[in-house]
User: Fold this.
Amino acid sequence: MTDLTALSYTSEHEWIAVDGDIATVGITDFAAEKLGDVVFVELPGADSAVTAGDVCGEIESTKSVGELYAPLTGTIVEVNDAVVDDPSLVNAEPFAGGWLIKIRVEGDLPTDLLDRAAYEDLTA
Assistant:
């Protein structure tokens, strides 16, 4: 299992795992539960530029349609095609097989990222 305390979180319910200049991004278990059964995921293409705070994709569930916001500025280096093919992975494995995109980060990480305790406080 992923060490949830090693991740950073956004107030838009995304998690970020940084390894060097590559950040893996997904939505949290809280977001996946609130969305309900995910039935469609649209992600940006590899080599796309993304800007922190801008919409870069869409997640559709049986309950609603939600936008995916880029939590960081950089270039998409990989997209999880398994999630596009089987959107239920977002619900089943939000911190593992349900990751969404990998971004080569440009510049510093945002200063408003949350640790696990702060994210839990936000969602309490």
Observations:
- Residues 5 and 117 are 8 Å apart (CA to CA).
- The chain is about 20% helix and 35% strand.
- Residues 12-109 form a domain with the OB fold (Dihydrolipoamide Acetyltransferase, E2P) fold (CATH 2.40.50.100).
- The two ends are 22 Å apart (CA to CA).
